[in-house]
């Protein structure tokens, strides 16, 4: 069995490497590929109430797909509404 000594310099190099790896993990933004949003996401983006989202849906200004009792809205439709490109 061979004995290996760990020096302070080895530990310091390990610490720097570990800190750099942690910084990379914390600064890397995960890709958010949401194409469908829930009502709460739409409310947050448009800064409107739940009732207003419902009124936009009922009037046909905002289309939704209902899945299992939950309305989902296309991200592109919301972005178009924000930029003023809605129909």
Structural topology:
Elements: H1 8-27, E1 36-37, H2 39-46, H3 50-59, E2 65-67, E3 70-74, H4 75-83
Antiparallel strand pairs: 1-3, 2-3
Structural overview:
The chain has helices at 8-27, 39-46, 50-59, 75-83, and strands at 36-37, 65-67, 70-74. It is mainly α and 87 residues long. The longest helix has 20 residues, at 8-27. The N and C termini lie far apart (76 Å). The model has no long low-confidence stretch (mean pLDDT 89).
Helix content: 40-55%
Order of SSEs: HEHHEEH
Give the overall shape, derived from the CA principal axes: rod-shaped
Count of helices?
A: 4
Low-confidence segments:
none
Structural class: mainly alpha
Strands, count: 3
Strand percent estimate: 5-15%
Strand order of the largest sheet: 1-3-2
Residue-averaged pLDDT: 89
Task: Report the end-to-end length measured between terminal Cα atoms.
Answer: 76 Å
From the alpha carbons, calculate the radius of gyration and give it in angstroms.
Answer: 25 Å
Summarize the structure.
By secondary structure, the chain is mainly alpha-helical. The protein is built from 4 helices and 3 strands, in the order αβααββα.
What attributes characterize this protein structure?
87 residues, 3 strands, mainly alpha
């Amino acid at each position: 069995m061979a004995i290996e000594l760990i020096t302070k310099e080895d530990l310091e190099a390990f610490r720097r490497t570990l800190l750099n790896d942690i910084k990379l993990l914390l600064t890397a933004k995960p890709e958010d590929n949401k194409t469908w949003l829930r009502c709460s996401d739409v409310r947050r983006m448009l800064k409107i109430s739940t009732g207003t989202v419902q009124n936009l849906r009922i009037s046909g200004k905002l289309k939704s797909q209902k899945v299992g009792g939950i309305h989902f809205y296309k991200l592109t439709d919301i972005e178009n509404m924000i930029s003023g490109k809605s129909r």
